[in-house]
Amino acid sequence: MSEVILEARNIFLSFHGVAALTDVSFRVNKGEIFSIIGPNGAGKTCMMNCINGLYKPQKGKLFFKGKDITGMPPHRRATLGLSRTFQKIELFGGMTVLDNIRLGRHMHIRTGLLASSVYWGRNSREEITHRKFIEEEIIDLLEIEAVRGEVTGMLPYGLQKRIELARALALQPDVILLDEPLAGLNLEEVEDMARFIIDINEDQRWKVTCVLVEHDMGVVMDLSDRVMTLNFGVKIAEGTPQEVQENPEVIKAYLGEEEDLYATRR
Questions:
Q1: Close Cβ partners of 55 (under 8 Å, ≥ 6 residues apart)
Q2: If 0-12 CB within 10 Å is exposed, 13-18 middle and 19+ buried, where does residue 117 land?
Q3: pLDDT of 264
Q4: Which site in 68, 116, 219, 233 is 20 to 30 Å from 184, CA atoms measured?
């Protein structure tokens, strides 16, 4: 039996009476890449926001590593090992690449404000340890050594996507939520990002469970262990990539009814 690391039970979320998610349940197994797909407006990002605590569902429960996190604030979920990238880049454009990445490491800092003002003994050792992890593991993995000292807001969009992933990895998460990490990237950048996702999922140094929201179906079907499909906030399918691709409800959600397609052509 696979170990369940993340679970949603009967999640219901609405905004001013309009349902965004209705009775959505699923389980994510430790070590897998679990993708959530669906047409625009299907509720994918709403589900991600519920998982990391930006939204609180009106009904249902969320569990992470066996702990009920439904009412837990985002920073507490991060402490447990849950990190996130965003559909729209959420970096500090006026800060350097290295400083942006360091922000993701703050959950692991053990010295207080007063103690950290003195760079000596335990404080200096802790700083060296964190810096070594960022520079030797994350920056090397994502191949951003050449821009580590650059101002983030001046860098190309594709590099900024990579830096946001780096900041999420600085937390050393057990689960990472990847909200459209390939959006806006060119073909070469898509191939690089897909390779990075495989590396953080499979490399023994990381072994991060990934929850992926993405519109690039080719990448989703190549990377995913299992796929869940949402449509108008309702779960309509879950299974292996092959099973989901062949599901009539999924085909209908993406392509519409055959009669409607013919009507449009006429």
A1: 13, 46, 49
A2: exposed
A3: 36
A4: 233
**Positive or negative torsion for Cα 74, 237, 35, 209:** positive
Q: Are residues 28 and 74 in the same domain?
A: yes
Residue closest to 47 by CA, chosen among 172, 240, 180, 184: 180
Owning domain of residue 98: 89-172
pTM for this prediction: 0.87
**Is pLDDT above 70 for 129?**
no
Rounded Cα distance, 186 and 174, in Å = 29
From 120, 147, 172, the end of a domain falls on 172
pLDDT of res. 116: 53
Q: Report the distance separating Cα 260 and Cα 253, nearest Å.
A: 12
Residues forming beta bridges with residue 151, ordered by sequence position? 96
Token pair, residue 106, equals 């703050």
The first and second tokens of residue 130, run together, are: 């964190």
Give the span between the Cα atoms of 204 and 168, in whole angstroms: 18
**b/e per residue 49-66 (b: at least 16 CB within 10 A):** bbbbbebebeebebbbbe
Same domain, 200 and 148: no
Total domain count, the chain: 2
- The fraction of the chain above a pLDDT of 90, given in percent, is 72
